[in-house]
């Protein structure tokens, strides 16, 4: 999926935002995703997420809000900080309000983005879908998954190998310990088995 201005304009219409779409905001988001510290959390990841959101729109209660949240979910990304999701969520909320969105919608997109901080449990269908989209990379074919792992490691080049293996291993084991990695039926059906296989391979490469 390309990141076309027409798609951005359609999103504004779907959100019932008054006035013309803010093309400058779209440019800011695209520039942010091109920052040099990024290797995985780039425009490629954003395009993949938005393509998932478009295909899975029938699963969402408010598909336009899910798309807005995906545009912003990695808008702030600095691997040496721990508040990226909070800052991204704040930007998503502020931008929607500035665009003429109502406070309730702004609060929902803020919560959607913030949920990516821990990828924890949620009873909200839109949150479940957004988190599944963000984790869909785990269930991709071997070559794509392995490239993703190299890209994430490159983003954390400032972390020494021992600390990386310990931290990444803890994250992988946490994912594998879940009853299900994916929360929606279609994503479990499509990605769960391959994701578990990929993560087991990752854990072995990390030294168990």
The CATH H-level superfamily is: 3'5'-cyclic nucleotide phosphodiesterase, catalytic domain
Give helix % range.
55-70%
Look up the CATH topology: Catalytic domain of cyclic nucleotide phosphodiesterase 4b2b
The count of DSSP E runs of length 2 or more, i.e. the number of strands, is 0
Distance between the termini: 36 Å
Please state roughly what percent of the residues sit in beta strands, choosing from under 5%, 5-15%, 15-25%, 25-35%, 35-45% or over 45%: under 5%
Radius of gyration: 17 Å
What's the quaternary structure here?
Answer: single chain
State mean pLDDT (0 to 100 scale). 96
Main beta sheet:
none
Any idea what the CATH architecture is? Orthogonal Bundle
What is the overall shape?
globular
Structural class: mainly alpha
Number of domains: 1
CATH class (first level) name:
Mainly Alpha
| Low-pLDDT residue intervals, each spanning 5 or more residues | none
Order of helices and strands: HHHHHHHHHH
How many distinct helices? 10
Please characterize this protein's 3D structure.
- It is globular and about 55 Å long.
- It is mainly alpha-helical and 208 residues long.
- It has a single domain, classed as 3'5'-cyclic nucleotide phosphodiesterase, catalytic domain (Catalytic domain of cyclic nucleotide phosphodiesterase 4b2b, Orthogonal Bundle).
- The protein has helices at 5-14, 23-32, 43-55, 63-72, 84-98, 103-114, 125-135, 142-155, 161-177, 185-205.
- It is 64% helix and 0% strand.
- The model has no long low-confidence stretch (mean pLDDT 96).
- The protein is built from ten helices and no strands.
